[in-house]
Design brief:
mainly alpha; 0% strand; 83 residues
Length: 83
């Protein structure tokens, strides 16, 4: 009976030491997860991706070149399908 009391108290002692060591690690881990979530939420509002891209307005020449390229691709696809 005395051995069970001794080992029970030893186990409780080791368990208390383990939990006292793990608590700060778990607090830092959860704090890191919360920090990543908050940064992920607030960073796009402070620095939106649109501000990093230059303003671009295509002119008539670029639009005509794009349409002619699309027409050539469509003609090539139609020609390949007919074969």
């Amino acid at each position: 009976m005395q051995m069970s009391i001794y080992y029970s108290s030893e186990f409780d002692h080791y368990l208390d030491n383990l939990t006292s060591l793990l608590e700060p690690v778990l607090i830092l881990f959860v704090g890191g997860i919360v920090a990543v979530i908050l940064i992920g939420l607030y960073l796009p509002t402070k620095y939106p991706i649109g501000s990093a891209l230059p303003d671009f307005y295509p002119d008539e020449k670029i639009c005509k070149e794009s349409i002619s390229f699309a027409e050539r691709v469509l003609n090539d696809v139609n020609r390949l399908v007919k074969k």
